[in-house]
Amino acid sequence: MENEYLAQLKNVTFGYNEKLICNSINLNIKRGQITAIMGPSGCGKTTILYLITGFNKANEGSVTVFGEKIEQLTRNQLFQIRHNMGMLFQSAALFLDLNVFDNIAFPLREFNLLPESMINDIVLMKLEAVGLRGAKDFATQNLSGGMKRRVALARAIACDPALLLLDEPFAGQDPVTMGVLTHLIKLINKTLQITIILVSHTIKNTFEIADYVYLISEGRIMGEGSPEELINSQDLWVQQFIQGLPDGPIHFRYPAVPIAQELNI
Fold first, then answer.
1. Is the same domain home to 192 and 76?
2. How far apart are the C-alpha atoms of 219 and 37, rounded to whole Å?
């Protein structure tokens, strides 16, 4: 019987030097679902995506994707497993010396599996999906931040991956484009049966399409469940985050010594 989970983090701890980012996190990604990872800035959401892709390796615990333990894979095995992944990076991470068309064609050409005529058709279809077919010849460095993310999304789905990782896809988008992208992400999930992991701060759009949500802070899971379950949660941390309340257990300021001490007052 096929495992219902496409990816799992079991007791994963990760940090840089003395800074702990993930503290014994357990996380399950169900096949065919949209799983959202949310939380305050700097809480480790993107780090979790990097652990799943193998960009980072856990200090403790295990990360399993497609039935393989990521930390045990060789470099070549890791490259092979990434063929089934597509990723939209938070910074878009486009190649600035390539135009829009060639950025999306890049993974297709890299895998060298298709003739150029077919690559041309696929690129145009992916650009049409994100509403940018008319911008196929644009220089990447001249795009707005929102357009760069849309190009990055088209590139992430170019190879029709089994697992799609989206890091802040709604950032920098106008309301109309945000609505279209929300619909598109759900359509990709349902039509192509692609499992999606979505990192976002945008509560409304994320809750509209997510099947399951993990709320993370200080390296720990603070809440989890369906959007409806989290909306109805009585947990103060969960409610402060969802409603954007100024007062509560979530602190605005990064931990520091008292300012009087730092200014020698």
1. yes
2. 12
Q: Are residues 64 and 125 in the same domain?
A: no
Global confidence as pTM = 0.88
pLDDT over 90 percentage in the chain: 55
Segment holding 230, helix H or strand E = helix 227-231
Q: Does residue 92 belong to any structural domain of this protein?
A: no
List the structure tokens of 130. Answer: 């994100």
- Start-to-end CA distance of the chain, whole Å, equals 66
Question: Where is the domain boundary, 160, 192, 210?
Answer: 160
In contact, 141 and 173? CB cutoff 8 Å:
no
Q: What is the mean pLDDT of the chain?
A: 89
From CA 185, how far away is CA 202, in angstroms rounded? 14
In this structure, the answer to whether residues 74 and 169 fall within a common structural domain is yes
Query: At CA 59, angle to CA 56 and CA 64, rounded to 5?
Result: 65
Q: What is the span of the domain harbouring residue 252?
A: 5-84+161-262
Residues in Cβ contact with 21 at an 8 Å cutoff, skipping those fewer than 6 apart = 14, 15, 44, 47, 219
Number of other CB atoms surrounding residue 124 within 10 Å = 15
For the chain, what is the domain count?
2
Digit-coded pLDDT (tens) for 2-58: 578 999 999 999 988 778 888 899 999 999 999 999 988 777 889 999 999 999 999
Cα 100 from Cα 152, distance rounded (Å)? 9
- Do 179 and 72 belong together in one domain? yes
Instruction: Note the pLDDT tens digit of each residue in 128-170.
Output: 988 899 999 999 988 888 888 889 999 999 988 999 999 998 8
pLDDT > 70: percent of the chain: 97
With beta carbons less than 8 A apart as the criterion, state whether 29 and 65 touch: no
